[in-house]
Structure to design on (181 residues):
Protein backbone atom coordinates (compact mmCIF):
# COMPACT_ATOMS: atom_id res chain seq x y z
CA UNK A 1 0.00 0.00 0.00
CA UNK A 2 1.09 3.54 -0.68
CA UNK A 3 0.00 6.14 1.90
CA UNK A 4 -0.17 9.69 0.54
CA UNK A 5 -0.95 12.43 3.08
CA UNK A 6 -3.72 14.85 2.16
CA UNK A 7 -3.67 18.55 3.05
CA UNK A 8 -5.46 17.71 6.33
CA UNK A 9 -3.11 16.24 8.95
CA UNK A 10 -3.65 12.59 9.76
CA UNK A 11 -5.70 11.77 6.66
CA UNK A 12 -4.34 9.72 3.77
CA UNK A 13 -5.23 8.57 0.30
CA UNK A 14 -4.22 4.92 0.11
CA UNK A 15 -3.27 3.31 -3.18
CA UNK A 16 -3.30 -0.44 -3.44
CA UNK A 17 -0.35 -2.22 -5.00
CA UNK A 18 -1.98 -5.05 -6.90
CA UNK A 19 -0.15 -8.15 -8.02
CA UNK A 20 -1.38 -9.03 -11.50
CA UNK A 21 -1.07 -12.04 -13.75
CA UNK A 22 -3.14 -13.69 -16.47
CA UNK A 23 -5.87 -14.55 -13.93
CA UNK A 24 -6.44 -10.98 -12.75
CA UNK A 25 -5.06 -9.23 -9.68
CA UNK A 26 -4.71 -9.51 -5.91
CA UNK A 27 -4.11 -6.65 -3.45
CA UNK A 28 -3.99 -6.22 0.28
CA UNK A 29 -6.10 -3.34 1.59
CA UNK A 30 -5.28 -3.72 5.24
CA UNK A 31 -2.18 -4.87 7.09
CA UNK A 32 -1.71 -4.01 10.75
CA UNK A 33 2.05 -3.63 10.32
CA UNK A 34 1.75 -1.29 7.33
CA UNK A 35 -0.91 0.84 9.01
CA UNK A 36 1.33 1.28 12.04
CA UNK A 37 3.60 3.32 9.71
CA UNK A 38 0.95 6.08 9.74
CA UNK A 39 0.29 5.74 13.46
CA UNK A 40 -2.84 3.60 13.17
CA UNK A 41 -2.92 1.16 16.08
CA UNK A 42 -6.66 0.86 16.72
CA UNK A 43 -8.71 -2.18 15.87
CA UNK A 44 -11.39 -2.03 13.20
CA UNK A 45 -14.51 -2.93 15.20
CA UNK A 46 -17.24 -2.40 12.61
CA UNK A 47 -17.41 -2.89 8.83
CA UNK A 48 -20.28 -1.41 6.81
CA UNK A 49 -21.37 -1.66 3.19
CA UNK A 50 -23.50 1.00 1.49
CA UNK A 51 -25.27 1.10 -1.86
CA UNK A 52 -26.42 4.33 -3.52
CA UNK A 53 -28.58 4.16 -6.62
CA UNK A 54 -28.39 7.52 -8.42
CA UNK A 55 -25.67 9.81 -9.74
CA UNK A 56 -25.48 13.16 -7.91
CA UNK A 57 -26.63 11.81 -4.55
CA UNK A 58 -24.89 13.29 -1.52
CA UNK A 59 -24.59 11.43 1.77
CA UNK A 60 -23.13 13.44 4.65
CA UNK A 61 -21.53 15.28 6.26
CA UNK A 62 -21.52 12.90 9.26
CA UNK A 63 -19.40 12.55 12.40
CA UNK A 64 -19.53 10.93 15.85
CA UNK A 65 -19.32 13.10 18.96
CA UNK A 66 -16.84 12.42 21.78
CA UNK A 67 -16.30 9.99 23.38
CA UNK A 68 -17.46 8.02 20.31
CA UNK A 69 -15.21 9.67 17.73
CA UNK A 70 -14.01 7.19 15.17
CA UNK A 71 -11.41 6.58 12.52
CA UNK A 72 -12.86 5.56 9.16
CA UNK A 73 -11.38 4.01 6.08
CA UNK A 74 -13.55 4.15 2.95
CA UNK A 75 -13.24 2.24 -0.30
CA UNK A 76 -15.53 2.39 -3.34
CA UNK A 77 -15.97 -1.10 -4.82
CA UNK A 78 -18.57 -0.30 -7.52
CA UNK A 79 -19.00 2.94 -9.46
CA UNK A 80 -17.28 6.19 -8.51
CA UNK A 81 -17.70 8.83 -5.81
CA UNK A 82 -16.24 12.18 -4.78
CA UNK A 83 -15.34 11.58 -1.13
CA UNK A 84 -15.08 14.63 1.14
CA UNK A 85 -13.73 15.16 4.64
CA UNK A 86 -13.87 18.29 6.81
CA UNK A 87 -11.50 18.86 9.73
CA UNK A 88 -13.68 19.70 12.75
CA UNK A 89 -10.98 19.14 15.39
CA UNK A 90 -10.95 22.11 17.73
CA UNK A 91 -7.55 23.78 17.84
CA UNK A 92 -6.50 22.12 14.56
CA UNK A 93 -4.54 24.38 12.19
CA UNK A 94 -6.82 23.15 9.39
CA UNK A 95 -10.09 23.59 11.34
CA UNK A 96 -13.09 23.75 8.94
CA UNK A 97 -10.94 23.07 5.88
CA UNK A 98 -12.01 20.32 3.50
CA UNK A 99 -10.47 18.05 0.92
CA UNK A 100 -12.00 15.71 -1.60
CA UNK A 101 -10.78 12.76 -3.62
CA UNK A 102 -12.30 10.54 -6.26
CA UNK A 103 -12.65 6.95 -5.12
CA UNK A 104 -13.75 4.37 -7.65
CA UNK A 105 -13.76 0.70 -8.40
CA UNK A 106 -11.39 1.50 -11.28
CA UNK A 107 -8.77 3.51 -9.35
CA UNK A 108 -8.96 1.28 -6.21
CA UNK A 109 -8.04 4.20 -3.93
CA UNK A 110 -9.11 4.37 -0.29
CA UNK A 111 -9.43 7.31 2.10
CA UNK A 112 -8.20 7.09 5.70
CA UNK A 113 -10.11 9.54 7.90
CA UNK A 114 -8.85 10.26 11.43
CA UNK A 115 -10.99 11.04 14.47
CA UNK A 116 -12.49 14.51 14.47
CA UNK A 117 -13.55 14.73 10.84
CA UNK A 118 -16.94 15.03 9.18
CA UNK A 119 -17.32 12.73 6.19
CA UNK A 120 -19.58 12.58 3.16
CA UNK A 121 -19.59 11.78 -0.53
CA UNK A 122 -21.32 12.43 -3.83
CA UNK A 123 -21.96 9.66 -6.32
CA UNK A 124 -20.40 10.27 -9.74
CA UNK A 125 -22.10 7.25 -11.29
CA UNK A 126 -25.22 5.20 -10.68
CA UNK A 127 -25.07 2.12 -8.46
CA UNK A 128 -22.17 2.95 -6.14
CA UNK A 129 -21.07 0.60 -3.38
CA UNK A 130 -18.74 1.52 -0.53
CA UNK A 131 -17.04 -0.49 2.19
CA UNK A 132 -16.36 1.36 5.45
CA UNK A 133 -14.01 0.31 8.26
CA UNK A 134 -14.74 1.93 11.65
CA UNK A 135 -12.59 2.04 14.79
CA UNK A 136 -15.66 2.54 17.02
CA UNK A 137 -19.12 1.06 16.94
CA UNK A 138 -21.99 3.29 15.84
CA UNK A 139 -23.43 5.10 18.88
CA UNK A 140 -27.01 6.26 18.27
CA UNK A 141 -27.60 9.65 19.83
CA UNK A 142 -23.91 10.59 19.52
CA UNK A 143 -23.95 11.46 15.87
CA UNK A 144 -23.57 14.89 14.38
CA UNK A 145 -23.77 16.41 10.94
CA UNK A 146 -22.91 19.50 8.96
CA UNK A 147 -24.84 20.75 5.94
CA UNK A 148 -23.33 19.62 2.64
CA UNK A 149 -23.69 23.20 1.33
CA UNK A 150 -22.53 25.12 4.42
CA UNK A 151 -20.99 28.40 3.21
CA UNK A 152 -18.59 28.37 6.18
CA UNK A 153 -16.90 25.36 4.57
CA UNK A 154 -17.56 25.91 0.86
CA UNK A 155 -17.35 22.37 -0.48
CA UNK A 156 -17.29 22.34 -4.27
CA UNK A 157 -19.28 19.29 -5.33
CA UNK A 158 -18.49 18.13 -8.88
CA UNK A 159 -22.16 17.63 -9.86
CA UNK A 160 -25.45 19.30 -8.98
CA UNK A 161 -26.86 17.72 -5.82
CA UNK A 162 -30.06 15.97 -6.90
CA UNK A 163 -30.74 13.55 -4.05
CA UNK A 164 -30.34 14.10 -0.33
CA UNK A 165 -31.97 12.41 2.65
CA UNK A 166 -34.30 14.42 4.87
CA UNK A 167 -31.86 13.84 7.73
CA UNK A 168 -28.89 15.23 5.78
CA UNK A 169 -30.96 18.19 4.55
CA UNK A 170 -31.77 19.04 8.18
CA UNK A 171 -28.17 19.28 9.40
CA UNK A 172 -27.58 22.78 10.75
CA UNK A 173 -25.36 25.41 9.22
CA UNK A 174 -22.32 26.19 11.35
CA UNK A 175 -22.37 29.36 13.41
CA UNK A 176 -20.05 31.20 15.80
CA UNK A 177 -20.96 28.74 18.58
CA UNK A 178 -19.41 25.75 16.78
CA UNK A 179 -15.97 25.26 18.30
CA UNK A 180 -15.26 21.79 16.94
CA UNK A 181 -14.97 18.41 18.62
Amino acid sequence: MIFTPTSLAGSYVIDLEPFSDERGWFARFYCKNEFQQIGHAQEWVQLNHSFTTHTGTVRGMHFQLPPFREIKMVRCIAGAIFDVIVDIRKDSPTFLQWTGVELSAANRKMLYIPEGFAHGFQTLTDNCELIYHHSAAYAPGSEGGIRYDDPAIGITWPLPVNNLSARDASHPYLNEHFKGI
Q: What stands out?
A: The chain has one domain: 42-169. The chain has two helices and 13 strands.
